[in-house]
Amino acid sequence: MEIRADDDCRLWTATAGDGDPLVLCHGGPGMWDYFDDLAGILRATARVVRWDQRGCGRSQRDGPYSVTRSIADLDAVRDQLAGPRTALLGHSWGAHLALRYAIEHPERVSHLIYVSGTGIDPERAWHPHYERNLRLRLGTHLDRWKALGDRDRTPAEEREWATLQWSADFADDSKALSHAARMATPWLGINYDCNRAINAEVKQELRTNDLAARCRTLDVPVLIVHGTEDIRPQWAVDSLHEALPHAERVTLTGAGHLPWVEARDAFSRAVATFLAGTTPGR
C-alpha cells in the first residue's frame, strides 16, 4: 500500500505479522526494500512495517534527498502504520537513519536495532578497509566489476554490476552471487542522485555534529548486530557502542553484511530476545 509523506510524496509500504510494531529501514542510500526474507523471519515476533525510501524502488521519485527529509518520511511511516511508539531496525545506511531518528524522537522509539552500520567516527577510517576487502572478496569477478564500473552501462549491465558488488557482502562464495541476484530481483534501479546527496550530507554531518555527545543522552535500548565476515570492519562501531548508555552488541559468526541471510536462526533469536526486553546472548 502507499502512504503520503507530509509533503504529499507517495511512499510504498507493506506490513506483515502480529504483535508490537517494528519498522525496517533499508540501506543504500538510493536502493529499495530488500527485506522479504527478514520480514518472514520476524513476522512471528512483531508486526513488521517495510517501506521504500523516497525516490527509491516503488516510492515516488521526488526529492529533496536529505537526512532531514528521510527522518520526516520515517516519521510519517511510523505515524500512519506503527502508532505513537515503535521499534526500529535499520540496516547499513538505514542503521544510521534509524539512529538519527531515535536521537531526534526518542519518545517515539521503544527499541533500536542497528544492523551492519558503520558507526559515527568523523574520519570514516573504516572506508579504506572496506574498499580493500571488497576487491579481495570479488576475486575472479573483480575484472568484470571494474570494467562495468568504468563505463556507461545499459540497464542489464547496471544490474550485473550491482549484483557483482553486492555478492561481496556475503561470506559463502558458493551462494554469494545467488544471494545478490535475489536482492536485484526485481530490478528497480538505483537512484544515484539520492545516493550522492545523502552520502555527502552524512559525511558532513559526521564532521560537524557531535553525534557521540547526542548518543550519550539517548535513553533508548539499542542492539548492535554485526557479522564477523562483513567487509566493513567491526571496529567501525566501537565508538558508537561506547557512547550509547543502553547498548548491547551481538556478533554473528560466519555472517556477512546481511546477517539474517547467513545466520538466520542466531539473528532471529537475538532480535526476539532483545525485543522481549532481556539481554541477547553473544
Descriptive account of the structure:
The chain has 282 residues and is of the alpha/beta class. It has a single domain (2-125, 189-276), classed as Rossmann fold, CATH 3.40.50. It has helices at 36-42, 67-82, 93-104, 126-138, 142-149, 155-167, 173-183, 192-208, 211-216, 238-243, 259-262, 264-276; strands at residues 2-4, 10-16, 21-25, 47-51, 86-91, 109-115, 222-227, 247-252. Helix 2 (67-82) packs across helix 3, helix 5 packs across helix 6 and helix 6 packs across helix 7 (173-183). The radius of gyration is 18 Å and the shape is globular. The N and C termini lie far apart (37 Å).
Overall helicity: 40-55%
Strand content: 15-25%
Strand neighbour order, sheet with most strands: 1-2-4-3-5-6-7-8
Rg is 18 Å
Net shape: globular
- CATH architecture designation: 3-Layer(aba) Sandwich
Q: Write down the secondary-structure element order.
A: EEEHEHEHEHHHHHHEHEHH
Supply the CATH class: Alpha Beta
